[in-house]
């Protein structure tokens, strides 16, 4: 059963369009819970919703079949960073946004800053639905604020370590559980001619996941003013840790998913992939002949205590323009928590549901994977890995600029022209400049 990749890489060409759209938007959303009154009995409500997840129209069809008074008109659109987010923000500016917006976690602050989101905490069923989500997800969708919900989580992507079980066993190397052990294993693997891992400039989202796992906080907001902390002690711990791999030729630096990356997977040159739930599909597609040789383990950690990052995930947010916030919230929570919806989320749309009930409600999530040595990898992700994602992480309001700077600066670091710590520092400066350019209050 595939879990598809719903994490998209933000392209450099989007910076101008998305920033321009955001700059033209005046805040209009309320920070207090929105009025959430159902439409009068007998009213036929029509909601508009769009997303880029293949197969999600089947989930919408089920909703429409079982909720005849609340019709969802669904449109399949390009991935958010491929134009949809710009279209959303332009619609917010003109007051014509869809009722339900599909927004990745890291983009929620952008849309809130644009005045495009409703706080749906007071909508019936929303607080109860939040109880099915982890603290780490609730802190993101509430911005850490009391009585606040700005998005209902429908997809998540906790990170683990995929590894070549056969190669580790043949070499007599223990599967690492700490980052110190991972580094020691890297040295042994390099002596055999292989590489323990790969660092990619196209994986800027991956670096955020590593920071999340380490307990870093790149962004915080207090009284309307932001702090940017890519150079905090825990964030630089991540940069400095991976710098030693670059300095000692212990990792490859191929673009994630590129032919060279696939070739390293297929040849046995690459021994581990630190990736998310959806990465299993990238591995199996890139190296199909290695079926049965891979396995999944939790990420190593700095402390030895279980901790995971995340790399992807989507929320359904009710727009400030919606005339039917109650019905829109009902649709969003149904997609995220209803047992029949959860089954289709997985089987038709390839989602990994954030609901803690998903493993019980969707038997296919517990199916063994032949490719991954018969492991029930999604059960491992759901029961062992996802609960260990640290709570409290906040995304910033200019993630397009942050990610584009990080992608460029990491690329420079991978060539040896600067360090990863330099890349983080340059990205912090670029982020603060972007916030100031958009008149977003920020320290620094």
SSE pattern: HEHEHEHHHEHHEHEEHEHEHEEHHHHHH
Q: Number of domains in the coordinates?
A: 2
Q: Can you identify the CATH class of the largest domain?
A: Alpha Beta
Helix-strand category = alpha+beta
How many β-strand runs? Answer: 11
Signal peptide: 1-23
Keywords: Cell membrane, Lipoprotein, Membrane, Palmitate, Signal
Organism: Herbiconiux ginsengi
Pfam families: SBP_bac_1
Account of the protein in words:
With 444 residues, this protein is an alpha+beta fold. It has 2 domains: 14-156 and 311-368, 3-Layer(aba) Sandwich (D-Maltodextrin-Binding Protein, domain 2), CATH 3.40.190; 158-309 and 394-437, D-Maltodextrin-Binding Protein, domain 2 (3-Layer(aba) Sandwich). Helix content is 41%, strand content 14%. The protein contains 18 helices and 11 strands. The protein has helices spanning 14-23, 56-66, 84-94, 108-113, 126-130, 135-141, 165-171, 179-191, 204-214, 233-247, 259-267, 279-286, 325-337, 339-347, 358-361, 377-385, 399-414, 420-437; strands at residues 45-51, 70-76, 100-104, 152-164, 197-198, 219-222, 225-228, 251-252, 272-276, 294-298, 310-318. Strands 3, 4, 9, 10 and 11 form a 5-stranded antiparallel β-sheet that branches. A hairpin with a 2-residue loop joins strand 6 (219-222) and strand 7. Helix 1 runs parallel beside helix 3 (84-94), helix 13 crosses helix 14 (339-347) and helix 17 packs antiparallel against helix 18 (420-437). The chain is globular, with a radius of gyration of 21 Å. The chain starts with 13 loop residues before the first helix and ends in a 7-residue tail after the last helix. Residues 5-17 and 20-29 have low confidence and may be disordered.
């Amino acid at each position: 059963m595939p879990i598809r990749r719903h994490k998209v890489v933000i392209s450099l060409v989007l910076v101008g369009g998305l920033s321009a759209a955001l700059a033209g938007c005046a805040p209009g959303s309320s920070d207090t819970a929105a009025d959430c009154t159902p439409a009068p009995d007998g009213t036929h409500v029509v909601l508009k919703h769009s997303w880029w997840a293949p197969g999600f129209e089947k989930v919408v069809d089920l909703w429409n079949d079982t909720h005849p008074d609340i019709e969802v008109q669904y449109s399949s659109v390009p991935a958010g960073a491929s134009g949809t987010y710009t279209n959303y923000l332009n619609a917010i500016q003109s007051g014509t946004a869809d009722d339900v917006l599909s927004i990745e976690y890291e983009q929620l602050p952008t849309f809130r800053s644009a005045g495009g989101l409703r706080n749906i905490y007071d909508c019936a069923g929303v607080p109860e639905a939040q109880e099915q989500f982890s603290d780490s997800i609730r802190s993101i969708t509430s911005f850490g604020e009391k009585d606040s919900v700005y998005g209902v989580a429908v997809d998540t992507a906790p990170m683990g370590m995929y590894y070549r079980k056969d190669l580790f066993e043949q070499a007599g190397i223990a599967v690492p559980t700490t980052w110190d052990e991972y580094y020691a294993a890297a040295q042994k693997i390099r002596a055999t001619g292989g590489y323990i891992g790969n660092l990619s400039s196209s994986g800027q989202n991956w670096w955020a996941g590593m920071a999340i796992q380490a307990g870093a906080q790149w962004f915080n907001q207090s009284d309307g003013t932001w702090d940017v902390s890519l150079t905090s002690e825990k964030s630089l711990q991540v940069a400095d840790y991976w710098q030693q791999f670059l300095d000692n030729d212990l990792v490859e630096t191929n673009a994630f998913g590129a032919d060279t990356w696939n070739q390293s997977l297929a040849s046995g040159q690459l021994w581990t992939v630190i990736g998310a739930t959806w990465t299993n599909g990238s591995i199996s597609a890139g190296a199909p002949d290695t079926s049965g040789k891979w396995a999944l383990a939790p990420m190593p950690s700095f402390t030895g205590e279980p901790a995971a990052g995340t790399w992807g995930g989507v929320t359904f947010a009710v727009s400030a323009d919606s005339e039917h916030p109650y019905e829109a919230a009902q649709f969003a929570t149904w997609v995220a928590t209803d047992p029949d919806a959860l089954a289709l989320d997985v089987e038709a749309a390839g989602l990994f549901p954030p609901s803690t009930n998903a493993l019980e409600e969707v038997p296919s999530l517990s199916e063994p994977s032949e490719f991954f040595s018969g492991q029930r990898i999604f059960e491992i992700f759901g029961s062992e890995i996802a609960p260990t994602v640290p709570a409290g992480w906040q995304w910033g309001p200019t993630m397009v600029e942050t990610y584009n700077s990080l992608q460029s600066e990491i690329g420079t670091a991978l060539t040896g022209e600067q360090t990863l710590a330099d890349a983080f520092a340059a990205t912090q400066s670029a982020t603060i400049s972007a916030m100031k350019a958009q008149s977003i209050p920020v320290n620094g």
